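TA notes, week 10

Several of you asked for a full example with nothing omitted. So below is the full record: structure tokens for the whole chain, then the designed sequence directly under it. When grading your own attempts, check the secondary structure regions first.
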């Protein structure tokens, strides 16, 4: 169990580094808007699995719902409503603009995580396949 937690913690840290590099240095029309949004849900999933290593089958769904709520908060300008819109790092973390394509990227990332988890479970049950 400890080995699995370490794997997910290291994966989350690596993904966080990649996300930071994308946010700080990438100014394009694919990696930043699409790959970054896809990877962020994988990062959240890995971070959650580092703290809660049991295999919650619905975790990818929960991460997707959380990402959608974050996107909805952007639609209603929640940070501004709460008087927190002036905090730069919080605005970067929460995002600023609602976009349906972001939700599609979150769905793609969560589906990829779900598929990887299913394959890992299957391999664990069938080690000689």
């Amino acid at each position: 169990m400890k080995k699995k937690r370490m794997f997910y913690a290291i994966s989350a840290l690596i993904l966080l580094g990649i996300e930071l590099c994308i946010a700080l240095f990438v100014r394009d029309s694919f990696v930043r808007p699409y790959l970054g949004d896809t990877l962020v849900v994988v990062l959240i999933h890995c971070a959650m699995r580092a703290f809660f290593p049991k295999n919650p089958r619905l975790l990818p769904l929960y991460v997707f719902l959380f990402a959608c709520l974050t996107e909805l908060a952007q639609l209603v300008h929640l940070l501004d409503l709460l008087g927190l819109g002036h905090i730069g790092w919080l605005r970067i973390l929460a995002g600023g603009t609602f976009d349906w394509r972001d939700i599609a990227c979150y769905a793609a990332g969560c589906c990829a995580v779900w598929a990887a988890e299913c394959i890992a479970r299957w391999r664990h049950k069938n080690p000689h396949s």
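Residues 88 and 94 are 10 Å apart (CA to CA). Use that as a sanity check on your answer.
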